[in-house]
Design brief:
Blueprint: H1 3-20, E1 29-34, E2 38-45, E3 48-54, E4 56-61, E5 64-69, E6 72-76, E7 80-88, E8 95-101, H2 104-113, E9 128-132, H3 135-146, H4 154-170, H5 175-182, H6 187-200, H7 208-214, H8 219-230, H9 234-252, H10 257-263, H11 269-280, H12 284-295
């Protein structure tokens, strides 16, 4: 890849950040810029394309780590809870990244228009994949960002450019992975249906055979494909979602720790506190106080 082309896209992204911040006027496009390493960051990734234009980030899914730095991109095909760190950033060379949502409906439409058949067997579902940024993605990404200067063009041209980007992804190294997002009966899509149920019902008792039925698989097959895709068992996946929600509630509501534990599905306050500390490095009461003080300096513990 030519550094000059990447530098042009980087300058465009930085200008867009300076004008609008993280939330851009372009539907589905977010920007991240930071001048110092940060993390760990706990959150949920959704189907998306993340392009690192400067600096580096590491995302951890289960026991597997994915590092992507300047000129690399991360494709996410499923909604998964992650732990991430920005590991390379400074005032002189800030971390700069652009994240574009991927619409499964758009993927499905483009699959119908692909000229060539896809006889290859479906790959094992996987939630994250890192590849070098393809040359053909730079131009449409720059054109998409440039639309911020012409708001009247966004409703008409932005969907067309996003469709072009997805087309290039489908025909590039990410293609086999991305095609699974758009195929209703692919293993990735079926695991995705189970993940959606867990996300919407994470406070409920998890019944793996029922989840397997939702995915149209036997319990053993479902467990194997779920672990391959997310690097976690269904129970571990649910636990991460519960604990991330607990942290959000501690910040947003500052409620009693035991009440939060019960609200997210724990029956034992001691088990909740133990597992929270294992994930975030501090018990929930202390961690919540630290988060609130970091967000609003001067707040009492």
């Amino acid at each position: 890849m030519e550094n000059a082309r990447l530098d042009t896209l980087k300058s465009r992204a930085l200008g867009l950040w300076q004008a609008h911040g993280r939330e851009t006027p372009l539907p589905g496009l977010l920007l991240a810029v930071t001048e110092a390493p940060m993390g760990p960051i706990h959150g949920v990734y959704r189907p998306s394309l993340c392009i690192v234009l400067q600096g580096a980030k590491v995302s951890q899914l289960g026991d597997r780590s994915f590092r992507y730095d300047e000129g690399k991109c991360l494709i996410t095909s499923l909604e998964v809870p992650i732990r991430a760190e920005i590991v390379d950033a400074s005032p002189e060379k800030p971390y700069i990244a652009a994240v574009l949502d991927i619409d499964p409906g758009c993927v499905a439409e483009l699959l119908l228009e692909q000229a060539r058949a896809e006889p290859a067997a479906a790959p094992e579902p996987t939630a994250l994949n890192v590849q070098p940024l393809a040359e053909e993605l730079i131009d449409p990404m720059e054109r998409l960002m440039a639309l911020a200067e012409r708001p009247q063009d966004i409703p008409v041209l932005a969907p067309m450019i996003r469709r072009e980007i997805v087309w290039h992804l489908l025909n590039g190294p990410h293609g086999s992975m991305l095609r699974q997002i758009g195929l209703a009966d692919s293993r990735t899509a079926r695991i995705g249906r189970a993940i959606a149920w867990v996300r919407e019902n994470f406070t409920e008792t998890l019944n793996v055979p029922d989840l397997a039925g939702l995915a149209g698989m036997s319990a053993a097959t479902f467990h194997r494909h779920f672990k391959a895709a997310t690097q976690m068992t269904p129970v571990q996946f649910q636990k991460k979602l519960r604990l991330q929600e607990a942290r959000r509630l501690l910040l947003a509501e500052g409620a009693d720790v035991s009440q939060i534990g019960f609200a997210i599905g724990y029956e034992s306050p001691s088990q909740f506190s133990r597992e929270y500390r294992r994930m975030f490095g501090a018990p929930p009461g202390r961690d919540g106080a630290e988060i609130r003080r970091s967000v609003v300096p001067g707040i009492p513990a």
